[in-house]
What we know:
alpha/beta, 433 residues, five-stranded parallel β-sheet
Amino acid sequence: MGSILYKNISLADENFEIKNNMYLGIKGEVIDYVGEIAPCEEYEVVRDGKGLVAIPAFYNIHTHLPMVLLRGYAENLALSDWLNTRVFPFEAQITGEDIYHATLLAQAELLRFGCVSSTEMYFKLPYLFKANEESGLKMNASNAIVCFGNTDITSLGEYKEYMECLGNESIKNSKRFMLDMAVHAEYTTNPTVVKAAADMAKQYKMNMHLHMSETKSEHEECKGRHGMTPAAYFEKLGAFDVPCTAAHCVHLEGEDFEILARKGVTVANNPISNLKLASGFADVASMLKAGINVGLGTDGAASNNNLNLFEELKLFATMNKALTGDPTLITPAQALYAATRAGALSQGRSDCGLIKEGFKADITVLDIDKPYLSPVHNMAANLVYSAQGCDVITTICDGKILYDRGEYTTIDVEKARFETETRAKRISEKLGG
Amino acid sequence: MGSILYKNISLADENFEIKNNMYLGIKGEVIDYVGEIAPCEEYEVVRDGKGLVAIPAFYNIHTHLPMVLLRGYAENLALSDWLNTRVFPFEAQITGEDIYHATLLAQAELLRFGCVSSTEMYFKLPYLFKANEESGLKMNASNAIVCFGNTDITSLGEYKEYMECLGNESIKNSKRFMLDMAVHAEYTTNPTVVKAAADMAKQYKMNMHLHMSETKSEHEECKGRHGMTPAAYFEKLGAFDVPCTAAHCVHLEGEDFEILARKGVTVANNPISNLKLASGFADVASMLKAGINVGLGTDGAASNNNLNLFEELKLFATMNKALTGDPTLITPAQALYAATRAGALSQGRSDCGLIKEGFKADITVLDIDKPYLSPVHNMAANLVYSAQGCDVITTICDGKILYDRGEYTTIDVEKARFETETRAKRISEKLGG
């Protein structure tokens, strides 16, 4: 493995305070030096960090990467039409190879915008794995259980896929790719299956991922069906007995906050998707007050329509001020924490998400030599409120440079685009445009 | 004047539908050809538009450009602290030369993100004029009347400045720079002064610009003081008898919508500033339903903290879905209209804001050869939801290329940055950091 030293760089320290004129050394997969004076060790590559800022790379903890195939395909529709007339028919046509190529294109986009890891919920896990092996990013991937009626989990295709993946040595040995168990949502499963999935997650030491209280109607209908909120329902069935990431949580109420805090559930806040699908406004302030770990997700490109977590970062820091009427809430450091460390922790990657010696070198470098990043009264504020995803010039994952000034070192982005466009067109034309 | 022809370009037509493989010809200040077949005329420069999309350039209809001096200077503060402990003391130190240099930096940022015109409210108008003359952008500029107690308008410094500017031949003859009358807000003026300002606007045929119903407390206190809402108050005093742009309008109620529609008042929607200062969520859906012209503004960099109208564009198209619970609201075309044509109309520039033969050539060209703009099921949706301000490669104002692939043709951006940073530091240090 190579080694690289940035000198004279600004960086976000482990408290997300920005320090200037620092040295940042990377050896192999790890950050081996952070300091104000030059390290004694030698590095193969030395880069001048003047005009650059390093932050921990982003973790996008709720997304559906292959949905870049559907970018812009389902617009200005009510949720039921969005799903039933556009998304589901399109997805029914998606092959494993489609997923492989679209995942590579989506991961190029993640890298372009400074993100190295995703908590992914889609299907055909071996193709997600194949793409992730090649791209060099990290992924916690799940094939969400969906079933209607009184199905048993072992009869589901998802179950069979999990059993295959759990027996696959390459997947088992990968540290970058982790299998998560996932239940799509309360309204798309039944209690027997949720309990069985929770038991599997415990047995195989998998994290759990699920959609929860995304829409008001889903939340209320759960109460009607089960006499309890989705949070209480999932807790009762054991879904929170393993580390769990609950996406959306727009309509939490009452005890829900206490349940998630007590069970250590991470909330994946997807503000743009919630706006675009008209789901509502998640009460992030109450989550943070309750001590819940809150990270950020873009959701899929069909409901966003990009994978640029800088946009969620800015909304996290601004919208929660308006929702509470309190402009003192959410500091730039808190927002950066949510986009990085909170996400790494949710994925079970406790040695990731901070620029700190001994941590995995997941680093995003921004070029701040821009008219809109001047002057610098408060660098952290500039990064959260003023910076653009396009200001990222280098994205490093486990010490390996995956994106550097327009070049992708592991992804053939032209091929990924061509393949994705061709395949998206094939499906769209088959369905009548 | 030069002439330029883009061939094989995609462009937003006058209905904001995206047409592919088009010719777009510019001669002098004007769009002289839009069509599918090659024009007969010759052009000095011919550019290949493959992989590019042209849209009308953006109009930022509520901002305070020189506040880039304060970018990141006042963070996580309640509005009164934000104003009284940070913004007002800082602004008290700002000189005319500071304003000149900071305006140039801010206009470089506008150009970078595809915007050619601003509805500007600040002070020391001759320095705004000087910057705008050099930069080549458009500006509707005002020095907002602020007074406390029973002051007469003629005793105010703003009045004197207006009279000087109204007598200045260079200013009078400029078409790009237009003097607007402005009243800062109801709570920072008195009825006598508002009426006098409205009379002056009528007399000199100036547009009006004001802050209105930005915060709940301001809106309610107006009702307490005057027994009517700010909209009714301003109507009564004649402020809406000339074309008026009312910024924010977050807390409109009841008859307010009808008043603004009837009087042809434009609302400048500033969603990010409203979020960051915790002012709330403007009811844009009701404004549009009432027939009100709604354009977009960034507000100043101290409450945003950039001047990238692509961010407002996306929020306009998404947040209003969540606020109404209706994801079918606000099409990409409606959002693009708000960022362009609605703004041009509000500034009294009726021959701007559309890509149409005979209109002023205010054009923004985007490079769409990006992983996050692929595939293209719906180009307009990609532009509104997926594109980045940084995708702008060329910004043209009145037929003149002002920004082109990193180069500013009229602004010395390095100098503007250096001067702005030096001056911001001078003030910050004087005030103790």
